[in-house]
């Protein structure tokens, strides 16, 4: 990574967000240090970089996007799309680097490429899987790299070996409870589905301890509203767990209704990449073996295996994380010395990570196989991070929404920082919309949308915080030329959004509030314009249709598009659609809000 590339990006974002040097200094980076960094005369420490991220209201992953040298990470999705010849060249490059540096990560990436090539050609790759398993079983915890590789090789492991890696995964994934990268959703789903295949469906008589471990792990997995497959899996796990506890005919009836809704919605078989499970098959296995499960010594309500796991974060500083990584992965100090990391320097970094320079941090990440996403949740734990955890909007408790929104408004009045205003806008919208779904059509919403839109118009490069505000601002964007420009930006910028916390089709998400406002106003031309852009003109439509959240949202939008022809029948169809949705997700505030919207549309158009 070139220091100048990072300096240029930081300076551009500072100018774009109208952040002064005084504000940079107040955030914890001295004026002289900042200017020396911009001129290429000095680097920043990791802590100084975190202060800048906080001030800019962007994540570490977003800041480093397009700047950091690759590879830090193993993007199995990208590797899987490569032609054989390109994969072979990539393997040769990885092997050459490994021969020079001898870091374990290089050999592990080589094994992954071997597996992808062997699967395509029908060749044996058992030795590659065994080598990766032997490396991973020794680790104390998993980074995103190990989680992703586990999702790749899990189906090739014996149930006993997979269980060892599965336990490490469910311990390690909890660190992402408030900050889950988009890529982790697919990885987690594949690992949980593999667990069901190997430990519930495959055994003649499943071990009740393993069944209970899987159910508890799924129920406690971090999840966001757009991770619908995981939400469906959570509901499924809840119903099986209830049946194990009660052996109740009522629960059997509830599961029958759940599976019927799954078939009608096209999700009875869950699939992600090359891993799939039949929800019906797993359920039949439990039903057929319920007496044998209850006869086993471990009570089905006593999830001992899960309780014995450790969910304490492995580290709270980058120094602790690197110490554990170097020790776990057998990285030799002698090898690190060749890159300028003497033993004394490494031990200083372990003890005092606040003095760690950014370039050194990125080199160590690459060596240890750590992704930028691994550091996003870690950096939020820095002791002098300067931002109260309650302002992590994903972590704000429901009862604190109003108070936190007011505090952010007050902070903005004092600081003038855009991040505080953006947080206030988002929480204020959530509070108003939850209180009354018809707020979208109100005069207050119109004023609120204009304020948000004016803020977004001033920002040349939108990041994750801004993209969460786009659907509010779009309620104010009605001129065709400006609407086209906003939609173009969303389509363009969304292409590289792999680092976001949650998987989102930004275009489909962005138009939703504007569609509902137009529905309440009876502006059918605008409804059709928005839906057409979100679906017909969406270059990511095919990719997005792999995911339930966006497949179901697109189906809803198609109904909105023809609502003007027969409003009553269309709203009935929406009710039926979201009734199935509710059955699959269980009690869900998101579904409740949609039903409330349909109730109000029904009153208006019946």
Report the C-alpha radius of gyration, rounded: 25 Å
How many strands in all? 2
| Global geometry | globular
| Gap from first CA to last CA | 61 Å
InterPro entries: Cro/C1-type_HTH (IPR001387), Lambda_DNA-bd_dom_sf (IPR010982)
Domain HTH cro/C1-type: 10-63
Protein name: Helix-turn-helix transcriptional regulator
Pfam family, one: HTH_3
Task: Offer a concise description of the structure.
By secondary structure, this protein is mainly α.
How does this model look, in words?
It comes from Weissella fermenti. There is one protein chain. With 606 residues, the chain is mainly alpha-helical. The protein folds into five domains: 61 residues, Orthogonal Bundle (434 Repressor (Amino-terminal Domain)), CATH 1.10.260.40; 64 residues, no CATH class; 167 residues, no CATH class; 62 residues; 170 residues, no CATH class. It is 67% helix and 1% strand. It has a two-stranded antiparallel ribbon. Helix 12 packs antiparallel against helix 13, helix 15 crosses helix 34 and helix 24 runs antiparallel to helix 25. The longest helix has 20 residues.
Please name the defining characteristics of this protein.
mainly alpha; 434 Repressor (Amino-terminal Domain); 5 domains; two-stranded antiparallel ribbon; 606 residues
List the SSEs and their pairings.
Blueprint: H1 3-16, H2 21-27, H3 31-38, H4 46-56, H5 60-64, H6 76-81, H7 84-101, H8 104-121, H9 126-136, H10 144-153, H11 159-172, H12 182-201, H13 208-219, H14 228-246, H15 249-264, E1 269-272, E2 275-278, H16 279-288, H17 290-295, H18 304-307, H19 318-328, H20 333-337, H21 343-351, H22 358-368, H23 372-379, H24 401-415, H25 418-435, H26 443-457, H27 464-473, H28 480-493, H29 506-510, H30 512-521, H31 524-536, H32 541-544, H33 548-561, H34 567-585, H35 589-605
Antiparallel strand pairs: 1-2
Protein name: Helix-turn-helix transcriptional regulator
Domain HTH cro/C1-type: 10-63
InterPro entries: Cro/C1-type_HTH, Lambda_DNA-bd_dom_sf
